[in-house]
Structure formats: structure tokens, C-alpha cells
Write a structure and sequence with these properties.
globular; disordered N terminus; single chain; 56% helix; mainly alpha
């Protein structure tokens, strides 16, 4: 189960490939269900783009992938299907992760996040070409 388990990440640490794959496969569906309950939705999507940016340091990617994998994984500490509180643990983990790497989220990541959220609001795929 993906989780932030208190391990200390070293500068060369890399994201877990299985978690990375889970995030790639499940992020947009999970985000679509939770977006209205996440007060910092744009930051979460910007973190997604930062996590998959080749210019992002491996350690930062590892932190973001772990947090995003926890968000995507349906059976976490507080199951996401529970009304009102289901995403509260996910939000807490994402808040800590994003706060710890905030300087690595670039304006390009934020622009991509805004564009993806706009496309979703228009009923389009967030992954369509701009």
C-alpha cells in the first residue's frame, strides 16, 4: 500500500516504479471525484506535473509520487468513499508533501495545472493537447 511511512529520503532516492505507474493510471479519475473537496486543487495538479517533469530532482519526485499514490490508492487510512471525511487523510498528506517541495513547482507546472482543470471543467480530457 502506498504511504508516507516516515522513511528518510536521501538526495539520490527515486520514486517507486509501481507507485509511479499507479499515479499515472489513477490520478485523473481520482482527482475528478475529489476536486471539489480539495481546497488547493490547482496545487495538487501542479504537483502531478512536477512529479513527472524530467527536470524535477529524483528526491522531489519520490516525495510527490508517494503522496499522489496515497491519494490515488482507494483503501487508505480513512477510505475515500466515506462521505465528508474520506479524503481528509489524503489532503493532509498532500499538504505536507506539497509544502515540503513547493519551490520545485514551477510556473510551467501551474500553467499546465490550470489548463488541465479548465479542460476538465469543459468536459474534456485533462490530457488533451493545449
Amino acid at each position: 500500500m502506498p504511504a508516507l511511512d516516515g522513511e528518510i529520503l536521501q538526495p539520490g532516492d527515486k520514486p517507486d516504479p509501481a507507485e509511479e505507474n499507479s499515479v499515472r493510471k489513477g490520478f485523473w479519475a481520482t482527482f475528478g471525484k475529489a476536486a471539489g473537496r480539495i481546497p488547493f486543487a490547482e496545487d495538487v495538479v501542479a504537483a502531478y506535473y512536477c512529479a513527472f517533469d524530467p527536470q524535477t530532482p529524483s528526491r522531489v519526485k519520490a516525495i510527490l509520487i508517494a503522496a499522489l499514490a496515497y491519494f490515488v490508492f482507494p483503501l487508505d487510512t480513512i477510505p475515500d468513499m466515506l462521505a465528508l471525511v474520506g479524503f481528509s487523510d489524503d489532503i493532509a498528506i498532500l499538504t505536507v508533501a506539497i509544502s515540503s517541495i513547493r519551490t520545485h513547482i514551477t510556473e510551467a507546472h501551474r500553467d499546465a495545472a490550470r489548463a488541465a482543470i479548465k479542460r476538465m471543467g469543459e468536459g474534456k480530457s485533462p490530457l488533451q493537447a493545449r
